[in-house]
Automatic annotation (TrEMBL):
SUPFAM superfamilies: GntR ligand-binding domain-like, Winged helix' DNA-binding domain. It comes from the Bacteria. It comes from Agrobacterium albertimagni AOL15. GO terms for molecular function: DNA binding; DNA-binding transcription factor activity. This is Transcriptional regulator protein. PANTHER family: GNTR FAMILY REGULATORY PROTEIN (PTHR43537:SF44), TRANSCRIPTIONAL REGULATOR, GNTR FAMILY (PTHR43537). Residues 16-84 form the HTH gntR-type domain. It holds the Pfam family FCD.
Amino acid sequence: MRKEDVRELRVVSNLRTSHAKVVEQLGLAIVGGRFAIGEPLPGDAELEAQFDVSRSVLREAMKTLTAKGLVVAKSRVGTRVTDRCHWNLVDEDVLRWHFRTGVTREFIDHLYDVRLVLEPASAAFAALRASPEDCAELRHYAMLLGSNELDWPSQVEADLRFHVLLTIVGANPFLESMVGFIKASLDGAFTMAFDPQLAGRGEAITELHLAIVDAIEQGDAEAARTATERAIEQGRAAALKAVDSSQKRG
């Protein structure tokens, strides 16, 4: 992703093709447990009728699910759901499907542990490589967080753009390849934690993110790393609270 693309980043992407819709519905069904581990999926004819798609569209969808590690096709056996250890959890779609179908405290902790590995490192690199323009844009997004003038989805998008831009500014191609994971993590956590009372989160969330920008502007890699760790831990606490609330409602 290019820096200029971050400004157009949205939380939700529309599914525009038949292929994407089939992948989405089957992916949700698999991750949500509608099809058990080792269970064969329905035959091609049944799925073609269910989704009203051609054989070629269905086969492309199966190839996509196979690439994500969710299914495996074997001759004379059919297409079966693989064990979860084979699922590509850093894949943007697979991670999003987990949030859509429900996550546990353990899942959230594992997810935020990975964010603690990736994003503070990106912030440290950004402190060494960010331009004044990069810092200005990061500061702009940080100032939007907790704004009483923005609705919740707009705040989520500002936070999303901040963290994605932070990763890109770090200019490490391996970390940049994790942008989809970071996007899906934030999207899922914020959507799960939706609460009208959080729409005005105020100065605390802004200050956490401004501390990251300040450290980057000063070229202080360790301070940028530490400030990012604090922001992620705050996000972990909010996500865990949302899981607990969801379980109580259930």
